[in-house]
Amino acid sequence: MADRAAPAFEDAQIALGDRVQTVRRPVVPPDADFSEAAIIAAARKQTGLHFFGDDPFRTNLRVLIRSIEDEAKLNPFGRVMARQFLIARLADRLRAQDLFDRHPEILETKLGPMTFIVGSARSGTTRAHRLLARDPRFLYLRDWEINFPVPMPASFGDGPDPRIGRAKGAHAAFLAMNPENAHIHTLDAEAPEEEIGLLSMSFSSLMIEVQRFVPTYGRYCLRTNQHAAYAYMKKLIQLVAWFRKDDPDRPWVFKSPQHMQDIDALMQVFPDAKIVFMHRDPRKTVASTCSMFWNISILGSDDNDPHALGHYIAEKVHSQIAKVEQERRTIVPADQQLDMRYADINADWAQQMQRIYDFIGIPFTPEARAALNAASEDRDARHGGHKYRLEDFGLSAEGIDALFADYVEKYGIPAEDK
């Protein structure tokens, strides 16, 4: 058999403000078809399965496809990646449904107490989550589990789960195309990671937005109760717990900025959950979020408008905060929510972790403190390198200050370096 030819690559120089950065991506044929009929047929052919179970996800999928076609301005590589992403999520839904049908005990799996860390993107949710995950008393989802939550046939064997290698390979390929992303969010296949990948299975996820500019889809998700997506996320968590044979009484720790716009759905599905709300200077969260979205989306589009992205991100973060503030008052019981500032974790992480442990009702033991201290030292050694400016995205410090003035005043959020 002849060896498969290595893919050709092309370099693209992308300007942002007074900087130019180079991304490297494969050369692919144009005109990938990601219509609803085409991707559903491809997922069924790939898996040999047909039944999705209840499929309210189709409404989200249709809005997303229209938004991709109308707004994302994808290049050929972006179209291929969009097609592969959609097919992979549908294929995983088919495989998951097959497991649910063959093992109905999966959906009877008991889950222990849950704590969710919620805040705007880039507000410190990852740091708090990864600190807590170092305590062996907590259960959490790992990166490879949120990217590939459905076990493959080989996953049930005695060797390493093949999904770990798939995740490592995907991360390596992603960083090879744009190394700048290594400074934005640490990618580690076996590290704790947010559950946003599980929501992607229902096409209700900021992960989708970060990969391509789809504002109509984003606004639709924000204004629509995503109960079905969260109910399906719970099924996937049960699938992970069943596969791992987790202790049903151990507490879980989760995190995602996604929940800023979905507290209504989250509390409907997890009514006893405790929520830690993170707060950080909006100048930093908005600028850093713009940079993250930009650095990922430029792989799939050659027609990027950083100012359009900037104004959309500022609008979105503001809308998320307004929505969560309203829903905290009406949906989340007072004794199930705790506020925490990014600046306070930077000043004294141990004191803030003590507050979380007291809130959850778990002792902050010397062993836990030692484990979290090691995690904090590791984070400090790796931190740095991500550069971002509001001005590159058509925004100003004064404009952000005015937009978020009430929020900053309410929580006494200190300004970071300007």
TrEMBL record:
Keyword Nucleotide-binding in annotation: no
Sample GO molecular function, one term: transferase activity
Enzyme Commission number(s) from the entry: 2.8.2.-
Leading EC class: transferase
InterPro entries noted in UniProt: P-loop_NTPase, Stf3_sulfotransferase
Tree of life domain: Bacteria
SUPFAM superfamilies per the UniProt record, alphabetical: P-loop containing nucleoside triphosphate hydrolases (SSF52540)
Keywords of this entry: Transferase
Matching PANTHER family: OMEGA-HYDROXY-BETA-DIHYDROMENAQUINONE-9 SULFOTRANSFERASE STF3 (PTHR36451:SF1), PAPS-DEPENDENT SULFOTRANSFERASE STF3 (PTHR36451)
Listed name of the protein: Sulfotransferase
Native organism: Sphingobium cyanobacteriorum
